[in-house]
Amino acid sequence: MKSILYLATLVGILWCSLGLLMLVGYSLLSHFSPFLNDFLNVSVKTSKWFLAFALFFTVSGLCTSLYALARANRDNYMVFLSFAFSSNASSIAVQIYRMVANGIGWWAADLLGTHSEVSLVKWLSIFLLLLSLILLSFQFSLIRMERRAP
Q1: What is the largest CA-CA distance in the chain?
Q2: CA distance 82 to 143
Q3: CA-to-CA distance for 42 and 35, rounded, in angstroms?
């Protein structure tokens, strides 16, 4: 059981770090948008959908780590695990909705508009969706394990 808790902590920290990296990138991009518009002629727009996705992604990782800490201390750990699962499911829902509405490279289309037609953006978007699905299956496995444990 300890190895599962260590793995949950490690995965949660990794996901939270990726989410924070996306949030920092979004804030830097929006902060330096006048500079990018003047020198590169690229207009950067704000995207509430990308911000929601990054927040859900970060909260999911944070709650996964907090689940492991609460489980180790024998506190009320199912609250953290269920919130992590629901926020990750919301993150996947945002990604799929925006992929249907704007195409596979949805976040770049939201942020950069016409400058987003790059295959790297599409591969990165698919990679983020696969990462979210992997975390969702890991969290679902943790929920099933906790329901079967005495």
Answers
A1: 62
A2: 8
A3: 9
Q: How confident is the model at residue 116 (pLDDT cuts 50, 70, 90)?
A: low
Closest CA to 94 of 140, 31, 47: 47
Q: Which amino acid is at 131?
A: L
Within 10 angstroms of residue 37's Cβ, the number of other Cβ atoms is 12
- Spatial distance between the Cα atoms of 84 and 92, rounded to a whole number of angstroms: 12
User: Are the C-beta atoms of 109 and 58 separated by less than 8 Å?
Assistant: no
User: Quick one: CA dihedral 137, 11, 145, 88, positive or negative?
Assistant: negative
Q: Which tens digit of pLDDT belongs to each residue from 41-52? A: 777 777 889 899
Contacts for 139 with CB less than 8 Å, ≥ 6 apart: 60, 64, 81, 84, 85, 88
Cα–Cα–Cα angle for 56, 19, 48, nearest 5°?
55
pLDDT in tens, 130-145: 999 999 999 999 999 9
How many residues in the chain? 150
Look at the pTM and tell me if it is higher than 0.70.
Answer: yes
